[in-house]
Design brief:
- This protein is an alpha/beta fold and 330 residues long.
- 40% of the residues are buried.
- It contains 10 helices and 14 strands.
- The strands form 2 sheets. It has an 8-stranded mixed beta sheet, with helices on one face. A 6-stranded parallel beta sheet has the order 3-2-1-4-5-6, sandwiched between helices.
- A hairpin with a 6-residue loop joins strand 13 and strand 14.
- The chain starts with a strand and ends with a helix.
- The chain folds into 2 domains: 123 residues, Rossmann fold, CATH 3.40.50.720; 152 residues, Dihydrodipicolinate Reductase, domain 2 (2-Layer Sandwich), CATH 3.30.360.10.
- Helix 9 crosses helix 10.
C-alpha cells in the first residue's frame, strides 16, 4: 500500500525515496528545493510532490513519514508527525539533545506508533553475521572493539563529525555485542579550520561486561576508511565496508597470521533496502523496530556525554546560549 511520505530529498533522502518507491510504498515526496523535486519527478512521475510538510502531516492517506532533514530539525518534525498519529522513520541522530530523544521515545510508546531511527548498519548483512558469531561465542570473551569511519566531507552542516558519523559506530557496536554502553571514558575532538565544528573526533566507550570500544570519525581523511575490528579471547574479525567483496575476515588465535574470509550469500542486498523493509514490517505488525526510539535515545546520550567531555567549559557556554534562544522563541 502506498502510504509512506518522505520529507527531505537531498543527498541521502533520494536513496530513501528510491527504496520506498521500489517497495511500492511511496505516496508523497516533500522538499523545499525545486531542483530536487524536478529530478525526482523525472524518475518517479506517478508520485505526489509538495513543498509543504503540513500537507503531508494532514493527509489521512499517509500513515508514515520518513524525516530525512538536517539533524537540528528532527525533533520538531518528528514530534509533530507522532502527534498526528503517523509512524516515523527518522535519519540518525534522532536528535542532538537526549531529553528531546527521550520525549520522542515516550510519545511513540504512548501512542503505540513505530518510531525507527536510521541506524543503517544494524541492518547490514555483515553486521548481522558478526552478531550471530558473537552470540555463538565464536570470539570468546570480547575485550576490545574499534570502529573507524574516515572520509572527506566538504559539506560540514552538522555540529561535528561525531554527530554525523558516530551514531553508526555506537549503534552498530552495541547491537553486535548485545550490550548497552555504560559510560564514556574519554573524548577528544579537533577542528582543522580552528572553529567550533570538530571534523576529527575520538571517543572511548565502556560497554556492559567491560568491553572497550574506541570510535574514530573524520571528515578530512583523503582516503575513505570504514573498518570495524572485533578482538576476542578466541578469535578476531575485521569488517571492511569499503570492499566490494570479501568484506569480512576472521582470524582464529589458534592459527596466528592465518585469516579466512566469511562467504555471505546475501551480501549483495542493499542494507538500506533491508532497513526500509523492516520499517514497513513493523508498521504492519505493530512490532518495535530494531533501531527504535530507545535505541536512538541511548546513542544520543552517549554522544551528548562525549561532547561534554570534548568541549568542557565551552559546552556549558553553548548550552546556556541554546537555552536562552529556546526561551526567546516561546
Amino acid at each position: 500500500m502506498k502510504n509512506v511520505a518522505v520529507i527531505g530529498c537531498g543527498i541521502w533522502g533520494k536513496n530513501i525515496v528510491r527504496n520506498f518507491y521500489n517497495l511500492n510504498a511511496l505516496h508523497t515526496v516533500c522538499d523545499l528545493d525545486d531542483e530536487n523535486i524536478k529530478k525526482l519527478k523525472e524518475l518517479y512521475p506517478d508520485v505526489n510532490y509538495t513543498k509543504d510538510s503540513a500537507e503531508v502531516l494532514n493527509n489521512p492517506e499517509i500513515k508514515a513519514v520518513c524525516v530525512v532533514t538536517p539533524s537540528h530539525t528532527h525533533y520538531k518534525i518528528v514530534k509533530k508527525a507522532l502527534e498526528m498519529n503517523k509512524h516515523v522513520y527518522v535519519e540518525k541522530p534522532i536528535s542532538t539533545v537526549s531529553e528531546e530523544a527521550k520525549t520522542l521515545m515516550e510519545l511513540a510508546n504512548e501512542k503505540n506508533l513505530v518510531l525507527m531511527v536510521g541506524h543503517l548498519l544494524m541492518y547490514h548483512p555483515v553486521v548481522n553475521r558478526l552478531k550471530m558469531l558473537v552470540n555463538e561465542g565464536f570470539f570468546g570473551d570480547i575485550r576490545y572493539v574499534q570502529s573507524d569511519r574516515l572520509n572527506i566531507n566538504r559539506f560540514k552542516n552538522d555540529r561535528s563529525v561525531m554527530w554525523d558519523l558516530a551514531p553508526h559506530d555506537v549503534s552498530m557496536t552495541s547491537y553486535i555485542l548485545g550490550k548497552e554502553p555504560k559510560r564514556v571514558i574519554s573524548a577528544v575532538g579537533a577542528s582543522s579550520e580552528g572553529n567550533d565544528i570538530m571534523d576529527i573526533t575520538h571517543i572511548t566507550v565502556e560497554f556492559e561486561g567491560g568491553t572497550i570500544g574506541h570510535i574514530s570519525d573524520s571528515w578530512i581523511h583523503p582516503q575513505k576508511r570504514v573498518n570495524l575490528l572485533i578482538q576476542g579471547s578466541k578469535a578476531s574479525a575485521i569488517f571492511d565496508d569499503t570492499l566490494s567483496e570479501n568484506k569480512l575476515q576472521i582470524f582464529e588465535h589458534s592459527q596466528p597470521g592465518v585469516s579466512t574470509t566469511e562467504s555471505l550469500e546475501y551480501i549483495e542486498i542493499e542494507p538500506l533496502k533491508l532497513e526500509c523493509q523492516h520499517f514497513l514490517h513493523c508498521m504492519e505488525t505493530g512490532k518495535k523496530a530494531r533501531s527504535d526510539g530507545e535505541n536512538g535515545y541511548t546513542v544520543v546520550k552517549v554522544l551528548e556525554d562525549a561532547e561534554k567531555i570534548m568541549l568542557g567549559e565551552r559546552r556549558k557556554y553553548l548550552d546556556s546560549v541554546n537555552f536562552a534562544l529556546s526561551r526567546s522563541k516561546r
